[in-house]
UniProtKB/TrEMBL annotation:
InterPro entries according to UniProt: MetalPrtase_cat_dom_sf_prd, YbeY, YbeY_CS
Source organism of this protein record: Parapontixanthobacter aurantiacus
Top class in the EC scheme: hydrolase
Gene3D superfamilies: Metalloproteases ('zincins'), catalytic domain
Protein name stated in the entry: Endoribonuclease YbeY
Record localization: Cytoplasm
Sequence positions that bind Zn(2+): H120, H124, H130
Cellular compartments per GO CC: cytoplasm
Amino acid sequence: MMLDVDLEGWPEGGWEALADRTAEAAAGVEPLLANDRLAASVLFTTDAEVHALNREWRGRDKPTNVLSFPMLDRDALAGLASDGPPEMLGDIALAYETCLAEARDKGIALADHAAHLLLHGFLHLAGHDHVDSAEQAEAMEALEIRALRTMGIANPYD
């Protein structure tokens, strides 16, 4: 998957490399994400920006840690041929201050928490969800745990 990564309001660090590693891990547990034609944008930004995006696009006037905006539904993604021009999968935005506070509360590294949230976003872009049923949530969490393990990151649900 090709990524376009923007950094606005995050400290210097290996965020682009982390996004690439996380996309690879996501493709390792969700085969639909392994199509080389796919492209996604990842925005590492501020709480204020994510709050504005959440208000404008989701109708929720509150900050959150990660937002994902899929551009393909799961059926279109499944039917995407391996040959052809790049196809935009969607966008992910991470809020720095919220991610940092959550990582501190959990006693984990910011990079590990950011990887978990990115992975969560990539799975949403692939059509996974966790709001309609406990089964959906458990299935999505299992994929996250498996992918994070390949990155050397502990189970975030323990």
